[in-house]
Amino acid sequence: MRFPSLTDAAGRARQTAIRFPLALLSGLVAAGVMIALIEGPELDWHPRVWATAMLGLPVFTAIATTVERRRLSSTVRWVVALVAVAGLVVLGYAAQAWPEEQVALRLLQLALMAHLAVAVAAFARGPEQIGFWQWNRILLLRYLLAGVYAGVLFVGLALALAAVDNLFGVNIRNETYPELMAVLALVFHPWLMLAGVPEDLDGLDRVEEYPAGLKVFAQFVLLPLVTVYLVILTLYLGKVLFTREWPSGWIGWLASGASLTGVLALLLLHPGRNREDSAWVNGYGRWFFLALAPSLGMLLAAVGKRITQYGVTEPRYILLVLTVWLLGLGVFYLITGSRNIRPIPVSLGLVAVLTWFGPWGAYATSRRSQEGRLDALLVANEMGQLGAATLAGRTVSPEDVKELNGVIRYLHRSHGVPALAAALGVAEDTAEAWAADSTMSRWDRVEVHAARHLGVEYRAAGSGRGEEFTVGVKAPVLAEIAGFDRMQPVTLVENARLEVGATGLVLEGSSDMRTLRILRDSLPVGSFDLSQALDTLGTDGPESLSVPITVDAEVDGIQLRLVLVHVWGQRPEGRRSPTNARGYLLIRRP
After folding, report:
1. SS (H, E, C) 492-538
2. pLDDT at residue number 86
3. How far are the Cα atoms of 72, 119, 199, 209 from residue 205, in angstroms, in the given order?
4. Backbone angles phi, psi at 85, to 5 degrees
5. Which ranges of the chain have pLDDT less than 70?
6. CB 281, CB 269: distance < 8 Å
7. What is the C-alpha separation between 249 and 239, in angstroms, rounded?
8. Is 368 helix (H, G, I), strand (E, B) or coil?
9. Burial class (CB in 10 A: 0-12, 13-18, 19+), 239
10. Which residues, including other chains, have CB under 8 Å from residue 430's CB and lie 6 or more apart?
11. What is the H or E stretch that residue 225 is in?
12. Which among 85, 300, 334, 418 would be 20 to 30 A from 184, CA to CA?
């Protein structure tokens, strides 16, 4: 056996770069953006551009391998690649307008489409043969192998840098380590993986290799797990039928885990269907979905009830569609007895595409559902209607207040300020002014103003700690600095530490921020007690302060005055508990 030399490795790397130039360029761009994120400051476009570049890796890999398999000309290849580049650029610009709550889900759907294209596109035409399975087996194992190499290389280089730092006194910045990881994960890893992609894709149909490790893993790890999941789900179904209680929210996680594990086992065991010693695989492939059907029925009932109670949201929509997809696969394999596994990734890709856009998609359907829910609540409480909301004409029940808060929060965070403004009938510039109100926490300022527009109280999502509160000085603050030597701006969050000038003191926030400890050498030497200042505001005190909250303290002759201009936090049972605050600290040395 001849081991590869450095010359061989360099030649292979160069050949891979020629074969997959745009895929590797996408990795370089993603690594560059990640390094810019680490160096800071983070700009709004950084995460979305990084995610768009990450999509380029599978997209351009799929284009290159499909063109090779179809033996298309280089002209066709570059035309298709340039169209994909333009599409990714347009996507990057479009992603800037997506609300934060949608970004991750939309990009995950796109990533799923792109990776399924790598798995299927080159083998999409013609009858399925073993080459399709071998292709995906090689990709999976090559991905894992490249991950091991990249991980070992990172650990080794990180230890080498730490040794240089500690032994020779060469300052290695903390940012160097995550930047090294970014380069290895986004440049080295895909390069090494793509170097192992076979060039003769047609020849894969003649490969009969079936790694024993994969068979052992699927047969003795995945299948027992699937069996355990199905037994638990079947027993739970019996409990539901006996007690007549609706399924717990856990049913979604367990049914999803059983489905994913079972489908993965089915894919890994696929070559065994043609082996005499593994004839049982055919039975598993046909009856797995039948055994899963009762659990999927339970899941449909649970999701249906949540939708009836609280309307459609993107996660509920996608969970519902995936459940129907699994049931459809089960019906297909039971009726046809097919051994073809290609319909699994192909149909999943179609589901991802169809749920991503259009009036039937997850986002448009969810928005219509929640707007209909808002309209029903407004009409029931004599608050106008959708697009023309007014103050409540009667006392709104706590249950309806909670429902209104939920719809307001959803429309704003999942579809943006314009969607919420249109639903309430508020001018868009008025809603933008809500978003610019610096006297409130940026996370919920729009929701608070929207609730006030309806004349109801706003409560934070899922807050067992109580509703949120915000107090602050709206007018410009003139700092009273007479008698002090220094003024230090401060921004405080829970459990954070802040150095106090050059005094050797450290200001530390407690878990509820009602008391701020003053430390010296990690030992408490004083404190700022905000309790009285906060409690004097009253449980329903003003949200606009005429003067800042001011608290004094003295440590070893050092006079300290904390002046808070804005305070945000929770109000469990009427007791204000800050989570962050902004203001300044005045210091006078003896």
Report:
1. EECCCEEEECCCCEEEEECCCCCEEEEEECCEEEEEEECHHHHHCCC
2. 94
3. 20, 15, 13, 11
4. -60, -45
5. 1-5, 128, 246-249, 272-282, 285, 438-443, 460-469, 474-477, 494-495, 510-512, 537-544, 571-575
6. yes
7. 15
8. helix
9. exposed
10. 421
11. helix 223-243
12. 85
Question: Please, are residues 525 and 588 in contact by the beta-carbon 8 Å criterion?
Answer: no
User: Is the omega angle on the peptide bond into residue 127 within 30 degrees of 0, that is, cis?
Assistant: no
b or e along 102-125 (b: 16 or more beta carbons within 10 Å of the residue's beta carbon)? Answer: beebbbebbbbbbbbbbbbbbbee
Give dist(CA 340, CA 129) in Å, integer. Answer: 9
Dist. CA 559–CA 553, nearest whole Å: 6
- What radius of gyration do the chain's Cα atoms show? 30
Integer Cα distance of 424 and 403 in angstroms: 15
Tens of pLDDT along 169-178?
Answer: 888 888 899 9
Nearest Cα to 329, choosing from 352, 354, 351, 314? 351
How far apart CA 590 and CA 588 sit, in angstroms, is 7
pLDDT at 577: 74
Contact 242, 172 (CB under 8 A): no
Do 111 and 58 form a contact (C-beta atoms < 8 A)?
Answer: yes
Question: What does the chain come to in residues?
Answer: 590
| pLDDT at residue 572, as a whole number | 60
* 46-to-31, 413, 522 alpha-carbon distances in Å: 11, 20, 37
Euclidean distance between CA atoms 439 and 264, whole angstroms? 51
Number of Cα atoms under 13 Å in the Cβ half of residue 511: 1
Tokens 């709004």 map to which residue? Answer: 44
> What DSSP element (H or E) covers 487?
strand 486-493
The pLDDT tens digits of the residues spanning 278-328 come to 666 667 767 788 888 888 888 888 888 889 888 999 999 999 999 999 999
According to DSSP, the residues that pair with 559 across neighbouring strands are 554, 588
What whole-number distance in Å separates Cα of residue 15 and Cα of residue 311? 53
Tokens 């109670």 appear where?
309
- Tell me the Ramachandran region of residue 358: left when phi exceeds 0, alpha when psi lies from -120 to 50, beta otherwise: left
**Which contacts qualify for 287-293: CB closer than 8 Å, 24 or more apart?**
287/334, 288/226, 288/262, 289/326, 289/327, 289/329, 289/330, 289/331, 289/333, 289/334, 290/330, 290/334, 291/230, 292/230, 292/255, 292/258, 292/259, 292/262, 292/326, 292/330, 293/327, 293/330
Backbone φ and ψ of 506, nearest 5°: -130, 135
Q: What is the pTM of this model?
A: 0.76
For residue 56, which of 80, 26, 33 has the smallest C-alpha distance?
26
Pairing of strands 523-529, 549-555: unpaired
Taking a C-beta distance cutoff of 8 angstroms, is the pair 417, 432 a contact?
A: yes
Residue type, 508: E
The partner residues of 518 in beta bridges, in order of sequence, read: 507, 526
d(CA 378, CA 385): 5
